[in-house]
Amino acid sequence: MYTIKxxxxxxxxxxxxxxxxxxxxxxxxxxxxxxxxxxxxxLSTLAFTExxxxxxxxxxxxxxxxxxxxxxxxxxxxxxxxxxxxxKDGTVDFPEGxxxxxxxxxxxxxxxxxxxxxxxxxSTISLPYVKVIGHLAPEGSFELTDNELIELSKLxxxxxxxxxxxxKYRRPPMRWLQIFKNNNVNFHLGSDAHQLAEVGNFNSIAxxxxxxxx
Length: 214
Ligand SMILES: [Zn+2]
Ligand SMILES: [Zn+2]
Known about the structure:
This protein is α/β, with parallel strands linked by helices. It is 30% helix and 18% strand.
């Protein structure tokens, strides 16, 4: 039987947080400081999802530091993860050997051709090691039809992918969310924090959260 999922987004879980392992986040964003801040604001789940590329050489150190925090006895459920860029050919810029980690795949470049964008997205959704599609949104130069969004919903569900509600970009747009929700797509929250005060802060998408939770 067809039923619409009745669930609430967990405001105490942030599934998209950056750290000072990239070159553009605030220096204060150390794994340690983010974790202590998350404890202060009573987060229950915190996913570190640093920007990664095939060429990233800091991964072992990053994972080791997160492991150290784990064993320091924090009550927060800490997830070791990455955010990787979706490439035009539908693969992601992600190094081999880390497929077991929590992985967000996101578009980080502007596409002007809808078919290339859509086909890259569909291929990425079918990759088994991608868990989440990050800040999903239309490009300025094109829009998806309702039918295309319904088809995307089906693909997301078949491949058990989660669509993130992203506080930094305020995405996906409401119309997309309406169709995704009607088609039982799974959602969670990501602040996409690049500064400490942004961790666990979803104020900018209060309207999107309310829509999903009601
Ligand atoms: Zn991103
Ligand atoms: Zn991000």
